[in-house]
Write a structure and sequence with these properties.
This protein is α/β, with parallel strands linked by helices. 36% of the residues lie in helices and 26% in strands. It is globular and about 45 Å long.
């Protein structure tokens, strides 16, 4: 479905990713973990078309999309929930959600998509007419995920969705991500909550200093002593 093939990304003369290769299969949930500054956000931004690739290739459903402009990534079925949410805080929750459904295929299914988002995040039902900036952090993250889902993506890219949220809200967030995946949407989850991410994912990649240093079944990686020491404090 989606493949990174020896992708490298630089900021000016400074390399950020080196020869990164990964793949995501249809209806799969894959997580990427690693320390701060490892290159995880750079990777996910490149996969959404927001960060130019210096070398290597990206393929989606067999098509080379490496050099496409960002809006064409969305048209082909890739949506991103960026770190920090990036909502239009003065606009209503409903307006923010509807912004995600302006490509023709999504616009035709706008009401059905909205019903789906509200079934995943029922707390938003009474907030549709409220400014997005008036919501709690957890509710704003729901809006950010909902906005991406309004585009009806085949692949949902999530960058640190639990960042800054309370443990109870994090549980709800991961439950919704699991439900999204179980309904057929492929998910790439970049997350620092390693325990929860690994429990949710089928496969995982570990990124350090811009390179993938480990990969495999999430359950297998969780049992490795180096992962337990580095990320779980065991």
């Amino acid at each position: 479905m989606f493949e990174l093939d020896q992708v490298s990304v630089s900021y000016g003369a400074a390399p950020a990713l080196w020869d990164v290769s990964l793949n995501i299969q249809p209806a799969e949930l894959v997580c990427v973990v690693g320390p701060n500054g490892a290159g995880k956000t750079t990777m996910i931004n490149a996969m959404a078309g927001l960060q130019p690739v210096r070398t290597g290739a990206m393929r989606f459903n067999g098509e080379d999309i490496t050099r496409l402009p960002p809006h064409q990534f969305c048209e082909r079925g890739i949506a991103i929930v960026p770190e920090g949410r990036r909502l239009f805080t003065q606009m209503t929750v409903l307006d923010n959600l509807e912004l995600g459904s302006f490509i023709p295929k999504a616009k035709a299914r706008r009401q059905a998509s909205l019903d789906w988002v509200l079934s995943l995040f029922p707390a938003l039902t009474v907030k549709l007419d409220s400014p997005a900036g008036s919501l709690s952090g957890g509710q704003q993250q729901m809006v950010a995920i909902g906005r991406a889902l309004m585009a009806r993506p085949e692949l949902l890219l999530l960058d640190e969705p639990s960042l800054g949220l309370s443990p109870l809200i994090v549980q709800d967030m991961f439950r919704a991500i699991r439900d999204i995946n179980q309904q057929g949407t492929s998910v790439l989850l970049v997350e620092q909550n390693v325990t929860m991410a690994m429990k949710l994912a089928t496969r995982a990649y570990v990124v350090e200093e811009g390179k993938i240093v480990m990969q495999g079944a999430a359950s297998d990686l969780m049992s490795r002593p180096e992962i337990q020491r580095a990320y779980l404090g065991l």
